[in-house]
Amino acid sequence: MEIVCLKWGDKFSHEHVNRLYKMVKKNFYDDFTFICYTENSTQIDNRIEIRPLNMKYDLEKWWWKLTLFKYITNKPTMFLDLDIVIQHNITHYKNYCKDNEICTVKAYWKPHARDLLPIPPGYNMDLNSSVIVWKGDLTQVWKEFYDQADYFMCKYQGIDSYLYFHHNKILNFFPKDEIYSRLHGMDENKMWWHGPKVPLFYDPSYTICIFNKWKMDKKFGGPGIDDDAYIGFEKYWI
After folding, report:
1. What are phi and psi of 201, to 5 degrees?
2. Distance between CA 100 and CA 97 in Å, rounded?
3. Are 116 and 124 in contact (CB under 8 A)?
4. Terminal CA-to-CA distance of the chain, rounded, Å?
5. Residue of 103, 133, 127 whose CA lies nearest to 115
6. Bridge-partner residues for 102, per DSSP?
7. Are strands 208-210 and 179-181 parallel, antiparallel or unpaired?
8. 128-165 per-residue burial string, b: 16 or more CB within 10 A, e: under 16
């Protein structure tokens, strides 16, 4: 299996890449190649395969993820954001791979965003692309985006909305008991909004914790999360 991450700009450093690699080595018990797509490979562990980003695309932030679908892949591939923590064995994630489909995270912590098709005002939805598994020909995902890149980057705040509203028919989702959000929990029954008097969510029974909105601007009066949110999680990569 190919397990890939992407580092662009200065939001993440080589330390995040190396940390993710350590967690994958601890928790993936089959053959894999770990790949980092980046424009700056300085101090990245030499056991990690580096694939340079093609800077001619002139993309920013999360939009670089879509370049992963530029080519047909015959190998099961798993993408992991650099701000996730792997808590348990993820070897079975390869079984979520289906030909020509994308398997990703259902944001159950957004019950207000369920069943929103057709497109609602504001483009809200309940998809999160912190973890993606795929195989086969998904080149249309890249082609459609790149043909109108400026339009999509202005219309949406990230690739989640683009995938949800333009490629919904090829989407599948991981089971509910696999992945939770450090900020939002799991669903409306397990703390789906973090506030000043509500602690960050932690459940060691899940395989992956995603730190979505890490270092993003505070919105809706919430405190957001920063590096302090990782305190106590060090055991997962040391």
Report:
1. -85, 140
2. 9
3. yes
4. 23
5. 127
6. 134, 171
7. parallel
8. bbbbbbbbbebeebbeebeeeeeebbeebeebbbbbbb
Quick: pLDDT tens for 109-135.
887 655 555 555 556 788 999 999 999
Find out whether the peptide bond into 118 is cis, omega within 30 degrees of 0. yes
- CB atoms under 10 Å from CB of 41, counted, come to 17
pLDDT in tens, 188-230: 889 887 777 778 999 999 999 999 876 554 444 455 678 889 9
Burial 9-24 (b: 16+ CB within 10 A, else e): eeebebebbbbbbebb
Give the residue ranges of the chain where pLDDT is below 70: 112-123, 214-224
Tokens of 49: 């395969």
CB atoms within 10 A of CB 114: 11
CA 213 to chain centre: 11
> How far apart are the C-alpha atoms of 186 and 202, rounded to whole Å?
10
Cα–Cα distances in Å, from 62 out to 70, 138, 161? 15, 18, 12
* Class of residue 115 by CB neighbours under 10 A (exposed 0-12, middle 13-18, buried 19+): exposed
9: left (phi over 0), alpha (psi -120 to 50) or beta: left
Whole-angstrom distance, CA of residue 171 vs CA of residue 102: 5
Q: Which pLDDT value is given to residue 224?
A: 66
Question: What's the CA dihedral at 161, 167, 172, 178 to 10 degrees?
Answer: -20
